[in-house]
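fyi for ur records
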Amino acid sequence: MYVYTANNLCIHSEICLPELVVSEGTPEIVIRLGKLHNLPQESSGRGNRFLGELRGVGRFLIEGGREIVVEPISGIDESMLRPSILGPAMSVVLRQRGLLVLHASSVAINHTAVAFLGSSGWGKSTIAQTFHAQGYDILTDDVMAVETSRPHPIVFPGFPQLKLSPEAAASMGGDSKCLSPLFPNAEKLSYAFTGGFQNTPLPLERIYVLANGTYHDIAQLPPQAAFTELVRHTRAVHLLKAPEFIHSHLRQCSSLIRNVSSCRLSRQISLEALPELVKLVKEDLANTASCETQFRA
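which gave:
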C-alpha cells in the first residue's frame, strides 16, 4: 500500500495519490478497491456508513471514519478517480471522524489560519495562490477540516495542491506552462507545489465569506448570517442524514461563530485586482490584532 498524510491523519491507500505527502505510520484511514454493486442501499447515509455513486466515476463505501472502499467504473483514468477520493469521499470520512469540513481554502498568516469560504468557482484557490505568490504558506484548498471542540478551533493541513482556472494559472507567468489538467478535459489545472505548504495544524483566526462586488470591501458578518454561511458551505452535508450528524453539524457551526470572527469579503472580479485584495485582507487582520492588543492593555 501507499502511505500518505493529509488532514493530520495517516492514510494507507491501494490507489496511488501523488497529490498527498508521502509518510509512514499506523493507518488511521484506509482506501482500498472493492466490489460494491451487490451491497444494499438502505443504510446509505445513516449512522457511520455511507454508500453512494458518482456518475462517470464509480461507487464508494465510506464507513466509521476509517475506511473508503472504491469500485471504479471500468476503464476510468485514475486522474479522474483521485479528485473524487480527495474531495467528496474524504469530506465524508472526515465528517464521520467528528470534524467540521468546509468548502474553503486557507493560508497561514502570522501563525494562524485564515480561511476563504465559498462555492466552486468563487475564487478560493485563486486568492490562496495570490497569497502563496507573496510568500504565505497554504494549508488547504477546497476541503478544510476544522476541529471545533478545542477552546480555539484548529485547521488541519490538507495537501500541497491548488486547482486553478487557466486564466488564474496564466497570471502566474512562466510557471503555468508546465501545469496539467486535473484529468483529461478538466476545466481546472493542477498546481502542485513543494515549497510554501503549512504541514502542521494552526488555530483558525478569521473566515472570509466570498462575494462578488464592484470593488473590494470587508464587512463584519452578524452571528446569524455567519451561521447560515457555515451551514451553506459545509461539505457532504446532504450525504450524512442521520440525526446525530445533523445535530453535531449545527453544534459545530454554532461553536465556530462563537470563537472565530467571520466577514463578508466582496471582491472585484479581476485577476489584476488580486494584489489589492491581498493587501486589504492583511490590513484588516492587522487592524484587528491592533484593536485586540489595545483592548488587553
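Residues 293-297 have pLDDT under 50 and may be disordered. thats all i got for now
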